[in-house]
From TrEMBL:
Primary location: periplasm
Protein task: Participates in the translocation of lipoproteins from the inner membrane to the outer membrane. Only forms a complex with a lipoprotein if the residue after the N-terminal Cys is not an aspartate (The Asp acts as a targeting signal to indicate that the lipoprotein should stay in the inner membrane).
Stored InterPro entries: LolA/LolB/LppX, OM_lipoprot_carrier_LolA-like, OM_lipoprot_carrier_LolA_Pbac
Subunit structure, interactors included: Monomer.
Gene source species: Pseudaeromonas paramecii
Subcellular location: Periplasm
Source organism, top-level taxon: Bacteria
One Pfam family recorded for the sequence: LolA
Coiled coil: none
Family classification: Belongs to the LolA family.
Listed name of the protein: Outer-membrane lipoprotein carrier protein
Gene3D superfamilies named among the record's database cross-references: Lipoprotein localisation LolA/LolB/LppX
Length: 204
């Protein structure tokens, strides 16, 4: 009888806890899915393992769901992360090199690509925990370079900032401003043309 009670209690707890985690993930996906596309200006601050500021950066972000993403750093150095929905280009003009990976592989090292993703197989790799207006996204796979991604929403339901925490302790904080839910998206915005003289590292 006691064994039966213990099993029943465990089953009830599992039934109570698991939907909670699933609900948090679904709520996050619902919030992100309310806006099919948006643009914003970002300010990035990088901190070392002791919380001391290392560097700053800024640029422009453009998202078009599903899975299209353009992250263009303008200061202090130019770089580009671009997703066309299947592949991701990481372009560094300074070294004249572009690396190409599949979207699934890129998300591992660049988890904020999940902001534009509707792919259940990608989301299934992560746990989501809600705390007030913030959602912490953590990989289910151990040993990843990125420990967690934290997304913070304003009272209007818009994404206002996010944080990327690396396993080694370094942290990056991103503040979004000039949010536009109806940006003008030009033809070719999510298509990368390799500039002349640029080395291509295709890892797909």
């Amino acid at each position: 009888m006691k064994k039966t009670v213990r099993l029943l209690t465990a089953a009830l707890l599992a039934g109570y806890l698991l939907p909670s985690w699933a609900d948090d993930a679904q709520e996050l996906k619902t919030l992100l899915g309310q806006v099919k596309q948006f643009s914003a200006h970002f300010q990035q601050q990088v901190f070392d393992v002791e919380g001391q500021p290392l560097q700053q950066a800024s640029g422009e972000l453009l998202v078009s769901r599903p899975d299209r993403f353009r992250w263009e750093t303008q200061q202090p150095d130019e770089s580009l992360i671009l997703s066309d929905g299947k592949s991701v280009w990481l372009y560094d003009p300074f070294v004249e090199q572009v690396s190409i990976t599949t979207l699934a592989d890129a998300v591992v090292n660049t988890p904020f690509l999940l902001i534009s993703s509707t792919d259940p197989s990608l989301w299934a790799r992560y746990d989501v925990l809600k705390e007030e207006n913030a959602f912490t996204v953590t990989s289910k796979q151990k040993g990843q370079r990125i420990e967690s991604l934290r997304l913070i929403f304003g009272q209007n339901g818009q994404l206002s900032r996010f944080e990327v925490n690396e396993t080694q302790g370094q942290r990056s904080e991103f503040e979004l401003s000039q949010y536009n839910a109806q940006p003008v998206v030009k033809a070719g915005t999510f298509r990368f043309e390799v500039p002349k003289g640029v080395t291509v590292d295709d890892q797909r």
